[in-house]
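Follow-up to my post from last week.
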Amino acid sequence: MDFENILVDQQDGLATITINRPKKLNALNRNTIAELHNAFNQLNQDSSIKVIIITGSGEKAFVAGADISEFADFSVEEGGKLAANGQETLFDYVENLSTPVIAAVNGFALGGGLELAMSCHFRIASDNARMGLPEVSLGVIPGYGGTQRLPQLVGKGKAMEMIMTAGMISADEAKNSGLVNYVVAQEELIPLAQKLAGKIARNSSVAISSAIKAVNDNFKDGVNGYSTEIREFGNCFGTEDFKEGTTAFLEKRKPKFPGF
Ligand code: COA
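User reply:
Got it. Predicted complex:
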């Protein structure tokens, strides 16, 4: 896959997407968002890819936000469209991807950068990472799902504080708040992401995609997550992965899941 602003590496069922605009602290411009959509879409269609890791290039930033230079002179209509298009093509898209996505937050994750990390299925961080939603300091609010996903992850009160103060929190504070699962030294970040990806890849990718749907439906208005769980649980019984998983257990051997 050839892109201008991102790098995509694929090895042994694991894909790593690196946002590669280090001079702009990997800020998300229109082109980068489109490239990310295309990369996620292609990787999700490749049944050999079991897990996707997303990170930022350089040692300073995961993503320092949406590219402010692109929207500084937008009208009300253009602002609304920016948020709607971004949510549809990237942020909601990643959250609902059937392939698991781990955000390896290697530095600043601000505004759209934190929103991107929060769209991923879970997050790990390096100890130099700093996270926040600084939008109100620019006279705008988070528009890529931040007002919705941050309260889901850290609770309403902490989210309100972070959004209203526009401040940054440290990696350790992010871990204590439930925003990231692990904090490690920067050089250990990608190895940890790969280790976690390896654990995920040993399991049934078909069952994992069902689990993603069921968990996500807990947070969708008008959708009953328990009903989704019942439906997806039932569907599992019709899959080759289920036959292989249960047979392997009874035969006391490791499963070899056929997957999708
Ligand atoms: N959009 C566009 N460009 C950005 C950017 C963003 N969100 N964040 C950083 N950059 C650019 C800077 O303009 C600068 O470009 P230049 O060298 O051409 O002037 C370059 O990235 C390096 O950033 P700089 O501010 O010089 O680095 P720093 O170490 O002094 O500060 C930050 C780092 C992250 C604190 C600071 O860049 C920042 O506050 N960025 C904006 C964060 C934000 O508000 N994000 C939400 C957007 S809605």
